[in-house]
Design brief:
The protein is built from twelve helices and 16 strands. Helix 1 links the parallel strand 3 and strand 4. Helix 1 packs across helix 9, helix 8 runs parallel beside helix 10 and helix 8 packs across helix 12. The longest helix is centred in the middle third of the chain and has 25 residues. The chain starts with 6 loop residues before the first strand and ends in a 28-residue tail after the last helix. Bound molecules: nicotinamide-adenine-dinucleotide. Nicotinamide-adenine-dinucleotide binds next to helix 1, helix 2, helix 6, strand 7 and strand 11.
């Protein structure tokens, strides 16, 4: 498979669609990519996914709006939060960057269901990674255009779609000027630690994509929407595994008789995690310097497939990654159990992390938006609900397997990462609970349903993707193709 980091993509645009925000719902293939695209082997990163029309030279970005925008807002039965309104009493506008991804898609639907006016911004690069590496979601997923069309037909609610790269500031500025968000939820990053450790070019891509994308969002807020609240997805992995309790963002230290409250030390353990640390520093600085209001959600590892909204129709189904590059621990273990593969515990299995259900991700983001940070405030929430070691997860999956009549074995495999395999871990996570988070805990029932999903789709599992394929120590400069 060719190694690709730069993609330019041509799309035929009918004459009536040459203005921003035109209707483009039928112009993408079911894979989620535009009907035709070429894949040069250049490693230049600057325009990752460039959509451009034929004919006279025009802006490199297409603004795709799947359905006409309705200002109507109906009260949502059962909503646990007050109706969100913007300045003039209209629905609060939320831009969801990365809204075609795992967390972003579930969040976009949840917010739309709660009567927020939602615009998704995404360059669909996550789907491209799968094509590059020969990976696929366990669950079949529809194109973003079909997803949005299906949502509209089920609920009558509109979601705007802007396809483009947030590293392209011109594109991002146009989306800000046309949508005028009250809040931006920023999920739009390369989010896999193993992906960032495949080779030099993926490490460079990850840091450029994530750091520059976030920097552009900060500049766009400053320039076009300075009251807008940035809700940025960070990760608990930024803190590493210190031998003391992990606080929520800040720690008060007394040193040589003087006391100060300082950002909690960061000890990231991959080029991906390091990109998040740098994002956090850039956001903190711009809160101070420009008065940006921001919430950094240091999220734990997310598991689960269904939210109330994605369960409404097969076309709304979320992605479910189980491979060694993008799959997260619990999702991977459930798939391994379903296909009769021993659970792959890395090393001693004492690695302990915070975890949360995807239904809590969408709740947390809504809580952050509904209770915005003040002007100039850099607020940090640790977004997870429970902590488990890898061995504890393996034991839970084994137990759930027994209940379903599946024999589950566990094997220790050489750890491809550089990390402590046994360590102290106690991370605070009270701020979102104080705001009203009602956690979905990892009960047996949930595990059963996760396992049941894995069993339902087990014919789609590619056994070659189960073992880890990326080694932290073996990363080199040569471009590497992971899939066999
Ligand atoms: N999934 C987890 O367990 C987890 C845990 C902690 C933190 N997070 C954070 O949450 C966020 C979302 O994670 P996810 O699992 O949904 O990831 P994902 O890869 O499924 O989704 C990210 C989306 O962002 C888009 N994107 C990436 N770069 C972009 C760019 N330059 N311009 C426009 N769109 C771009 C991708 O196409 C994709 O649709 C990430 O920032 C990640 O670091 C996720």
């Amino acid at each position: 498979m060719a190694h690709l980091l730069s993609t330019s993509c041509s799309l035929n645009i009918p004459p009536s669609c040459k203005k921003p925000k035109c209707l483009l719902v039928n112009q993408c293939s079911s894979s989620g990519f535009p009907a035709s695209f070429s894949l040069p082997t250049s490693t230049s990163r600057s325009k990752m996914l460039i959509l451009h029309g034929k004919g006279p030279k025009r802006s490199s970005t297409i603004y795709a709006k799947a359905v006409s925008l309705s200002q109507e807002s109906k009260a949502q039965p059962g909503s646990s939060f007050p109706q969100e309104t913007g300045e003039a009493g209209s629905p609060k506008k939320v831009m969801v960057i990365g809204g075609d991804g795992y967390c972003g898609w579930a969040t976009a639907l949840h917010l739309s269901n709660r009567n927020y006016e939602v615009a998704i911004v995404d360059n669909l690069v996550r789907r491209l990674f799968d094509h590059q590496l020969g990976l696929d979601s366990l669950t079949p997923i529809s194109s973003i255009h079909n997803r949005i069309r299906c949502w509209k037909s089920l609920t009558g609610k509109d979601i705007q779609l802007h396809i483009g790269d947030i590293c392209d500031f011109e594109f991002l500025a146009e989306t800000f000027k046309s949508f005028e968000p009250d809040a931006v939820v920023h999920f739009g990053e390369q989010r896999s630690a193993p992906y960032s450790m495949i080779d030099r070019s993926r490490a460079v891509f990850t840091q450029q994509n994530n750091v520059i994308g976030t920097l552009n969002v900060l500049f766009a807020i400053k320039e076009y929407r300075d009251e807008c609240h940035l809700v940025k997805l960070g990760t608990m992995g930024e803190y590493g595994t210190p031998n003391i309790d992990i606080e929520e963002g800040y720690i008060t230290i007394t040193h040589n008789g003087r006391t100060d409250t300082l950002p909690y030390p960061k000890q990231a353990s991959s080029f991906y995690h390091l990109s998040k640390v740098h994002d956090s520093h850039n956001i903190a600085f711009t809160c101070k310097a420009w008065g940006i209001r921001a919430t950094d959600l240091n999220q734990g590892v997310v598991y689960g497939l269904r939210t109330d909204e994605t369960a409404m129709h097969d076309e709304l189904c979320n992605r479910f990654d189980y491979d060694g590059v993008f799959g997260t621990a619990l999702n991977r273990f459930c798939v391994q159990a379903a296909v009769g593969h021993p659970l792959t515990v890395y090393g001693k299995g004492g690695q302990t992390r915070g975890y949360l259900d995807i239904r809590d991700t969408v709740q947390c983001v809504e809580l952050a938006i509904a209770n915005p940070a003040q002007r100039g405030e850099f607020r940090v929430f640790n977004q997870f609900t429970e902590q488990f070691s890898v061995n504890e997860l393996a034991a839970l999956v084994t137990k759930a397997g027994e209940k379903l009549g599946i024999e589950v074995k566990t094997v220790s495999v050489p750890n491809p990462r550089v990390e402590a395999e046994e360590h102290y871990y106690n991370a605070k996570h009270t701020k979102l609970i104080e705001l009203g988070l009602k956690p979905h805990l990892l009960s047996d029932a949930l595990l059963d349903s996760l396992l049941n999903f894995a069993i339902k789709y087990k014919d789609r599992v590619d056994p070659k993707q189960i073992m880890p394929s990326v080694s932290w120590r073996k990363i080199g400069v040569k471009p590497k193709t992971v899939a066999v």
